[in-house]
């Protein structure tokens, strides 16, 4: 049997998952990054989480910055609690001991103080200064060994904070510790992103690669890369033969009774072709048991409600927040993984079974690295299938006259179950919408086109007679 | 003028306060924590101790308690200068300290208290 080591929960959302369950008790870690990368906030957040859980923390600094200034800046963060200072969390400076007596004296002092404080977490802020004081690499290794050996003996977890010029810094002392965490910034275009990388993780599986994080007044929130966290869905998919109505008159019959439950549909069409309207009809069939979610980037909830009502759908106040839910993220600076976690959280919270994502571009714009998108959407849609959510993703095409039988998105089509396109054709002086069914999972259907239109009362329908008449794409 | 012990693990703060007191004509000795302070206080019997609270090996509170427990040192007045423990020290141990200042403190007010304590009643 594989032994599981006892863990110290970090209190930082997302970090324990990246670390494979939290820090290992009694292990030591280097947290490195350039000044301003977030090392101090991260380690203090962990310290206060430990203190809140009734454990004791020793925070040792080797820095010129005074503790007052530190407390002042920490006081703007939600986790900071002045009442814990001096007792359950103790901040001490060993600058003078280092200057006057050297590294050995600091080790001795920290050992004694760790025991005095009965600390189960020791944060040592200023490894760079210790390094400067060391004459050789061996000295700094001896220093780290001196602190961590005793800490491990008394079951105290150690975080060594180190400023580094470049996050790529690999140092000899990295061989000494059980884990190395890199905090860094990446500037892409005009935006900058904070990210965390677990460079080393002994005795523990971790989620590899970079994970974005934010610093808000809540402290650090980490968003593990979705495709790493959900490399496999959280549960097994239970395939069913159930179908969910689309709300589009005539369409369900054409596709074998509705969209397969737990399937992912991509709805492609140019702007103004009726993709959102299609989706609103689908959401409108929500029930108390099967809630619906509109996860969008364009219309505000108020405008969306107006739009739905213009289509004769009931998006009244008595439904919103009950069986219909709207989550709007303006298409501004978004974080790709955060969007996915918001989406999944809403799906769980409201037991969503009908989901409209309007649209794919909202995720695409948020992606720093576009090459991730296929893996990202694979992970997201696999999870949605496993949660038995029937999803429609809208995809805006630039081309108003998509060739009806070609598959326009070879890469993304591997992650979808159903593909429906809407295009516009000019016919006898009128613009008409043609809805084409290109793929429906596990279904006998005719790959053909229908006229897609709105009836006088606004509701959407398709007309099966259309396909037999000749079409002239303009 | 008098001999004053300044006890603070934060070197910069100890140094600043020492400079301030030297400017007033006092002689100052500093210590980075309570234990080192207790040693030099025993050796040289200063007229006044100004101490931080949160320090390694021996806190300002423990230092004050040690002084009060020592018949030779019990009369030395102690001023506590603390970033976070001022309030709790005022509530829990008012008898240990001649005065308590919260960091960052008003220099003039601190110097006045120092002068008053040294002049004695």
What secondary-structure arrangement, pairings included, does this model have?
The complex is a heterodimer of chains A (474) and B (121).
Chain A: E1 7-8, H1 15-18, E2 23-24, E3 28-33, H2 39-52, E4 57-61, H3 67-74, E5 89-93, H4 95-101, H5 103-117, E6 121-125, H6 127-133, H7 137-153, E7 157-163, E8 179-188, E9 191-201, E10 210-216, E11 219-223, H8 226-229, E12 243-244, H9 251-254, E13 259-260, E14 264-269, H10 275-283, E15 291-296, H11 301-310, E16 324-328, H12 336-350, E17 352-358, H13 360-366, H14 373-386, E18 390-396, E19 418-427, E20 430-439, E21 449-454, E22 460-463
Parallel strand pairs in A: 3-7, 3-8, 4-5, 4-6, 6-7, 14-18, 14-19, 15-16, 15-17, 17-18
Antiparallel strand pairs in A: 1-2, 8-9, 9-10, 10-11, 12-13, 19-20, 20-21, 21-22
Helix pairs in contact in A: 5-7
Chain B: E1 3-7, H1 11-23, E2 27-31, H2 34-44, E3 48-51, H3 60-68, E4 78-82, H4 86-92, E5 99-102, H5 107-119
Helix pairs in contact in B: 2-3
Structure in words:
The complex is a heterodimer of chains A (474) and B (121). Chain A folds into two domains: 7-224, P-loop containing nucleotide triphosphate hydrolases (Rossmann fold); 243-468, Rossmann fold (3-Layer(aba) Sandwich). In chain A, 28% of the residues lie in helices and 27% in strands. Chain A has helices spanning 15-18, 39-52, 67-74, 95-101, 103-117, 127-133, 137-153, 226-229, 251-254, 275-283, 301-310, 336-350, 360-366, 373-386; strands at residues 7-8, 23-24, 28-33, 57-61, 89-93, 121-125, 157-163, 179-188, 191-201, 210-216, 219-223, 243-244, 259-260, 264-269, 291-296, 324-328, 352-358, 390-396, 418-427, 430-439, 449-454, 460-463. Mean pLDDT of chain A is 89; it is low at 404-408 and 467-474. With 121 residues, chain B is α/β, with parallel strands linked by helices. Chain B is 44% helix and 19% strand. The longest helix of chain B is centred in the N-terminal third of the chain and has 13 residues, at 11-23. Chain B is globular, with a radius of gyration of 13 Å. The two termini of chain B are 16 Å apart. The mean pLDDT of chain B is 93.
